Amino acid sequence: MKTSLKVTVCGLMAVMAGLAVMSMTFENQRASSDSKFSESHSLNEREVVTSRENITDAAGNLKPEAVVSDNKGAQQVIEWQAALPSQFQGTRVVGALEVDEQGNLIVNSQAKQVLDYFFTAQDDASIEEITTWLEAYFSEQLVSPAREQASRFLAQYIDYKTQLNQLAVEPDVWGRLYDPGQLVTPSDLTSLTRVFHEREALQSQVFDQATQAALFGEENDYDELMLKRLHVSLSDASEAEIQQQLASLDQQLPQVQQVEREASQLAIHHKELSEDIAGSDSATQYQAYAQTYGDEAAARLIALAERRKAFDQKRALVEAYRDALGENASAQALNDYMKYELGLSNGDIQRINTLEQIAK
């Protein structure tokens, strides 16, 4: 019996307990699908004090200062965007709140993505704060009966996540799963399988069968397949048999997930390769990249590395200039220095300013 194997664990954080939300990149791809919800459904039971053109920016994001009033004339300040932690700056709500022809909320994976978008702040905000933001978002996007249905769905989802947190798992297993380069053992597989079935049972307890399938069906199918891959990888079969069985299992994945899995594996390999050749001269790096990706890709990777190096050097100069100015380090002075002294583009200036905000 093989006691350990280095494996790719893309998506297995969801197997452990579903506590980690999907990467925003993947979610945004799903969020690009056409939504059944129309702007004409929004706010038609409230009087908009300021026109929609005035309460949204050029990108369509709601301005924090936007003010609306209900039928009773009581003004309500839409503050949820302004209250979000800094990590949400420059992002848009992922997913969609869809309604059917009768105005009922369609509880599906798109609605779950909306909740998960807000719950990514759970390390920096309380459940009460997140609930407040979501209720404000529901009021902005939905009218009765969908608005009340969204609130009930949120209560169910919080109940589910609360109970999900109580599923026990060994801390060291968490660490190995978050790092694709770490070892996964047969004992880990046992823990994964147990939590997977406990999670499915909890979903059945909190949600009806149709809702469970709509919210978690695709995720559960994927995770079950990943468990099968781990079982095969840790078996006593020969290497050739293992690879044949893994290839057969991968063919069961939807086409989109096959592409995503291949991209994930390529990204992991590239990260490992880049770490191995870090500190080498450009010629050595080029040779390593060329052997793996070909000459054209190698040339682009080297050029990208050079641009990144130059950017980092100029960013260091900006930090030194900021420190030298001290209390006189106004945004205008720094922007002028970056633009006229360092020759940075507007895009690079914005990037440096964003990185500075994130670092605070």
Automatic annotation (TrEMBL):
Stored InterPro entries: Lipase_chaperone
Location relative to the cell: Cell inner membrane
Broad class of where this protein is predominantly found: membrane
UniProt signal peptide: 1-20
Superkingdom, taxonomy of origin: Bacteria
Topology in the lipid bilayer: Single-pass membrane protein
Pfam families: Lipase_chap
Keywords for the protein's UniProt record, in alphabetical order: Cell inner membrane, Cell membrane, Chaperone, Lipid degradation, Lipid metabolism, Membrane, Signal, Transmembrane, Transmembrane helix
Function as written in the Swiss-Prot or TrEMBL entry: May be involved in the folding of the extracellular lipase during its passage through the periplasm.
Family stated for the protein in its record: Belongs to the lipase chaperone family.
Name of protein: Lipase chaperone
Organism encoding this protein: Litoribrevibacter euphylliae
Lineage of source species: Bacteria, Pseudomonadati, Pseudomonadota, Gammaproteobacteria, Oceanospirillales
